[in-house]
Amino acid sequence: MLLQAKPALVKAMPERPVMVEVRRLKKYFPIRRGIVFARKIGDIKAVDDVTFEIHKGETLGLVGESGSGKTTVGRALLRLLESDAGEIILDGEDFRRLKGKQLRRARRRTQMIFQDPYASLNPRIPVHGIISEPLEVAGGHSRKELRARVDELLDMVGLDSSIRNRYPHEFSGGQRQRVGIARALALNPEFIVCDEAIASLDVSIQAQIVNLLEDLQHRFNITYLFIAHDLSMVRHISDHIAVMYLGKIMELAGRDEIFDDPQHPYTQALISAVPVPDPEVEESRERIVLEGDIPSPANPPPGCVFSTRCRMAMEICSQKAPDYRKIEIGHYAACHHAAGAA
Amino acid sequence: MAALLDIRDLTVRFATEDGRVDAVTGVSYSMEEGEILGVVGESGSGKSVHALAIMQLVPAPHGRIETGEIWFRESDLLTLKGANMRRVRGKQIAMIFQDPISSLNPVYTAGFQIRETLRRHLDISQRAATSRAAELLDLVGIPDARQRLRSYPHELSGGMRQRVMIAMALACDPKLIIADEPTTALDVTIQAQIIELIKRLQVELDLTVMWISHDLGIIAGLADRVNVMYAGYIVERGLVKDIYARPRHPYTAGLLESVPRLDRKTAGKLKPIPGRPPNLARLGTGCPFAPRCRHGDDRCRAEMPDAEASDQDGHMVRCWHWRHVASGETGAGESHA
Ligand SMILES: Nc1ncnc2c1ncn2[C@@H]1O[C@H](COP(=O)(O)OP(=O)(O)OP(=O)(O)O)[C@@H](O)[C@H]1O
Ligand SMILES: Nc1ncnc2c1ncn2[C@@H]1O[C@H](COP(=O)(O)OP(=O)(O)OP(=O)(O)O)[C@@H](O)[C@H]1O
Ligand code: SF4
Ligand SMILES: [Mg+2]
Ligand SMILES: [Mg+2]
Q1: Could you tell me the CA-to-CA distances from B177 to A19, A258, B51, B88, B212 in Å, in that order?
Q2: Most buried of A176, A280, B50, B231, CB within 10 angstroms?
Q3: A251-290 pLDDT, tens per residue?
Q4: Do A275 and B215 touch (CB under 8 A)?
Q5: DSSP secondary structure letters along B211-226
Q6: Is the whole-model pTM more than 0.95?
Q7: Contact A269 B274 (CB under 8 A)
Q8: Distance from CA of residue A43 to its chain's centroid?
Q9: Reduced to 3 states, what is the DSSP secondary structure of residue B4?
Q10: Chain A residues within 8 A of B191 when measuring between CB atoms
């Protein structure tokens, strides 16, 4: 194996400063019954005591089944949603406490890229309007400056500036996603949450967008939270990966470590469920097929939330929630079995 | 080697605002009894429309089957009308769709809908239909089958709904099941359950299965043979093991190279296919992949190659330069460290 100048090696260096630090974050959605006198009858624990950090210029991949709380984490991090408890430290600042001007300034350093390039772009506004809107809101730019900046942004995402007067419906999904990314980049964000940003694109186009996101990261030292269903793509783009289940992080580790040495039975099952595009490998693979469905987040099982589907569950698993503990440097898991357990 | 399904020169055309669109062009292939055929290709390549054509469900009046024969057992389905086709549809060939919530009727219980399917095709009493429905739910791995008959679609999870759809498809003992992206809307652990289920049923019930997907991984683990579609054409077809190891069409090779693999460390950047899929209303006479193809030349841009038998039994490809591709640097197995 030839050792190439591999950015991954450089990226894995631990000295990079922390960009985002999340401690014991909670977001519960109340479940109400009744219409006139709605009363609260319970909570959906969408995000329940989540802790992680992302270093500057790195990517944390966030995976897990539908409803596990990934989008809620992303929205809470950007304060598109107010959390119920916990801390969000953004580049050293206590983001949850910021108000007024300080909050606006901090918010400008963050952005979100969504799954659906169709829904997230206003169909009645031409491309240059879509991209320049955040700049206009921020203010302080002349028409000429706006125009130059839009052209620069289009160029960054690999689109020709001649398309500036066209409308979203005139573009393919991949092009629309590029427009969405150009808009997200307008204010030079340092931290971007990509929520299923490539999920609606064709396989052959997904690779183009992922390469673009990586290029932009290297050029501008952007930090990503990359939320996705596609574990293979997450492995490719991430430096670290967190696996969520019913509002909790089950495991977090370096991108290769989590695949080479998964500690949590859920991570193991998730990895084994992902098909690999190689018939020889598929034929010889051992597959752990999880039984049953993900339980309702309104009524999660006692003890370990995964215990109802876990092939390694013991008596204690349905009684006591395991701690989210350190296995080794940069590797955490919440399982009574995980190595390093006392 | 009995062919269960034999499609010859199928072309399906739509009249759209944009102009005439050939969603499926000159498609010919046959399926052997008991095989699992994968159909892959990107969005808009004609996978669903070609399946709808088999069922004679191409939406009229905009869509029309222009040419072709679809032989299923002893008859050309395209010559069957009304009641005769209805007898085939659902009974001998059943289809499963991506989104069970829109294919199931929300106001009726799962049991009611399975019983209706049974009674539409079989002369069977209400009571017999109920126990057959329970048997079917049991067969597809739904716990407490009798109880579940009384559930409405919204009371079931996505995976359970897809199992109900499979039970309905199996209701009348069909020979051929066409599954159009049946797991795309599901979580990967639930997808794995459904794939295991289909594998088991295929063996137990001796089914012939067509599985449409854009996921090369699913097809690798499930199918015997694969049709790769691009812009309405089958551009390559053959045994899964052969094609994944040695793609002969630049599009197939490009697809296999562009996806990262979970079982490998990635070195460097992904290798996407440049450009984007063509607008089918604006296709010229040449190969529709030519603008994105690294082997494309003047002949490619001028003239679409015919389907050609290649160097392997049962393998066919539509590319002027397949020999270069097959021998070349583009093999899927060697692209990563
Ligand atoms: N605004 C809301 N009000 C009430 N419940 C909500 C709200 N937003 C999310 N939830 C619930 O919180 C849980 C977590 O949802 P979230 O959207 O974060 O999951 P996710 O992991 O992003 O899922 P997906 O993969 O389907 O996008 C779910 O049970 C969801 O129904
Ligand atoms: N009802 C329709 N009217 C007009 N054009 C149609 C219609 N249905 C399909 N088409 C066109 O036919 C072509 C093939 O569509 P088809 O649905 O078969 O693609 P597909 O391969 O199944 O894609 P996907 O992966 O997105 O499901 C597309 O270009 C599509 O725009
Ligand atoms: S015919 Fe030409 S353009 Fe088409 S795939 Fe083959 S080499 Fe490429
Ligand atoms: Mg989400
Ligand atoms: Mg389709």
Answers
A1: 51, 38, 11, 12, 11
A2: B50
A3: 999 999 999 999 999 999 999 999 999 999 999 998 898 8
A4: yes
A5: EE-S-HHHHHHH-SEE
A6: no
A7: no
A8: 23
A9: strand
A10: 273
